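hey so u asked for the seq, here:
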Amino acid sequence: MGLVNLKQVAAAAGVSTATASRVFSSPERVSEPTRLRVTEAADRLGYVVNGLARSMMGRGPRAVAFMVASMVGPTFAAMAAAVERVANDNGHLFLLSTTQYDQDREAQLIETLREQRAVAALLAGSAPSNVEYDQRVAGYARALAATGARLVLCGRPPIPSHPEIASANYDHSGGIAALVGHLAGLGHRRIAFLNLPGGTTTSGQRAEGFLRGVSSVGLPGAAELMRQSGNSEAEGEAATLAILDRTPDVTAIACATDNIAVGAYRALRKRGLRIPEDISVAGFDDVPIVGDLTPALTTVHPPFASVGETAAKMALGLDDRSSVVLPCRLMVRGSTGPVRDG
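ran it, structure tokens below
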């Protein structure tokens, strides 16, 4: 069977096509008997209202889009679930799109959201730290605003040159600084930091937190104690082995992510070092599995769900703040302990 159209519904109900259209677009303008005839005919024929067309005319539910480079791990899942709850509670649809780190694909998604009259787009996760990124995102915001939609940064810092773009973020820097303070409180003075590759908002904020942390407790922020690592267990293992070879006197390793920290566990065990008796290890993200490691990992717990909820409320005009930074919590577990004697 072919798709049933509005003209067929109108004919079956004995009304004009314009009257049938009003039943679905402005039912208050049609008498009750006529509405009943049209809706009964639509049900009998299996007519489905074109929801996309209605949303493009400003009627019916509109979409809240959550855009992220790659949907991997619980971090973005927690954010996305919170955004979906807020969207649903306010009568909107939820869309999840991945860009796969492709700027052309990202731009195409923004244009599709414009065409479909989405109510908001949330750009989630780490982003480049450069002028080109700032200008590109500002262009997205202007394009969406032209169709009545709003762009919100989710888990990203605000763009200083474009304060009109709202941002809901968590305190990357403060979380790392608290981690360093915890390790220093245990007597550690040679604390290595394995950070993500440079050039992104996340790596920049976490590097700033490490330097601020060592400075606040009077420790040198020596470049030799900092090393970059990709966000995988294998790369974390390689970076740990390299830092041990270069600075064998480190007594603690702070990692920018839990994935890197798991790699550090592997490297230290290869070297016959005990955690935390010989060396302490800490991470960032508090993914569920790290509590089951042996020993359980001390890490920073970001409020991922709260960030997603706040960003969604900003996007829908339910939170009028332009920039929000939510605090992280330090989760102290068995992987950190007092500095070893000698």
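The radius of gyration is 26 Å. The mean pLDDT is 91.
lmk if thats what u needed
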